Request: fold
Amino acid sequence: MTQALPPEPDAYLDALRRALSDLPAEERDDLLLDVEASLAETESDGAESLIARLGPPERFAAELRASAGIPLRVATPPSRSGVLSTIERVAGLLDSSPISARARLALRELAPIWWLVRAYAACALLLVAVGGQWDLLRPFVPLFGTAELGAAVVVMAAIVSVAAGLHARHSRRRGGHRRSWVALNAVLAIATVPALAHGLEAPVSAEQITLAAAPSQPTFGLYDNGVPVQNIYPYTRKGRPLYDVLLYDGFGNPLNITVGPDPDRRVLRTLRGRRVYNSFPIRYYQPGTKVVAHPAAAPLIALPRIVTPVLRVKPARQPLLRPSRGPETTRAGRRRP
Amino acid sequence: MDRSQLLRGILDAAVLAVVANEDGYGYDVLRRLRAAGLSDVGDASVYGTLRRLYRGGALTTYVMPSDEGPHRRYYGITARGIVLLDDARAVWTDFSHNLNALLATPLEVRSQ
Reply:
């Protein structure tokens, strides 16, 4: 049995579908059903090439359309609105783009790799959908409850994906089904990029995790065990509350608390108008006024009884303070000693 | 004259006649048309015509499993199809009678 040109009913049908791609999938499939059956029947009839017998698929489609009384639609009317139909249309375009038979064959060979990749992408999408996290030590494992369960989900997805791929390979999907299928693959292809990028990230060491628990970004304000400090109430060892005390760290940096512009906060100012944010306790005005209702307000504290002798400090002849130009006076406060 | 062009106008009647004779699936209808001497009829025209006649209510369809390949969609004629076929037959008989007479007229008589 010699066969110069093998009949290619699948390729011919695909070409017909492309030529009729302006029709709704259902109508197109309906129109092609008889053709499909006849191609299956004539496949065994002889070695004559389909194109030689039926003519170019474009002309065949045009004749089919004309005799069926279906006008050519220039623009596909959007049968459905929304994102999905847009994706489907793009997928349809991709699907109908002229890729050579060889490229299609190569893609077919490589498809199993894609089946695994898309399973992973699907897991990543699912993880995002349920608001889950990735395992920190193994960033390629999605945490569905636990890392073990996540790994199981990935394996399950891979099995399902390969099964679906094999099924699709053996039973050609038609029309609407086919387009939804292509659209789903397109979505997964897009999701693949971030999913794989995340999965290939260098795993985080346990040490880094511990460090990451502390705020690594420089944050404004003062923190006490991670909780922002709202106010500071200084007392002498004898329990006398101090007011408008300026606090600095070992580098001379003011220990500022700035939560944001608060018009009711009593902010000290210098003569030049500079605002001083490291004075404590912070006091707040009655809203809309410049009056502090309770200037002596303080939390209820049990003052410790101090028995350590008082620290002896020789009064410095020269002030430790770096003298600013001229005596600095806080507008709201007294003259500094 | 191009036979396929001539055929196009009368294909509805031809397809209706074939199906009225006996139900058939697409390729079967095509084969029987060709066997009847309409060798120029195109595959696509026949399948398209079947769909159009079906949509117009002249044909009915049912699906039968086939040993070779996909299920076959059989076409049968409806009451409306029979009316259409009768109409087409009357038109064709009248038309072909007149055209036969016209074409039978010797050429030299008309040229004078």
Notes: The beta strands of chain A are 133-134, 142-143, 223-224, 227-228, 245-246, 265-266, 268-269, 275-276, 279-280, 283-284. Residues 229 and 313 of chain A are 30 Å apart (CA to CA).
